[in-house]
Design brief:
about 90 residues; mainly beta; OB fold (Dihydrolipoamide Acetyltransferase, E2P); 1 helix
């Protein structure tokens, strides 16, 4: 597993049945970065992201990658947040 540290503001949310995806803008590559949350197990961290989005606050996020296998066998690299803190 690889870990990456990102700094940015939340650009948007995509809410699904089980997962919520968060777009993080202002990353080192200056691209939107997609973070995946398991809504049941990561509710405290997700609440922190909601507050940051509401107030336009910057976050410093540590994320780790994992391989997601689609039903057709295609493997996609995805990222999930490990921890976050306010960034001024």
């Amino acid at each position: 597993m690889a870990r990456i540290e990102l700094n940015g503001t939340i650009d948007g949310f995509e809410v699904g049945d089980k997962y919520t995806y968060i777009h993080l803008a202002g990353t080192p590559e200056n691209q939107n970065f997609l973070l995946e949350f398991d809504q049941q197990h990561e509710s405290r961290l997700f609440s922190m992201f909601q507050v940051a989005a509401l107030h336009g606050m910057k976050l410093k996020v540590v994320a780790e990658d994992f391989d997601f296998t689609h039903g057709n066998g295609t493997v996609e690299r995805r990222w999930r947040p490990v921890r976050a803190r306010w960034h001024i």
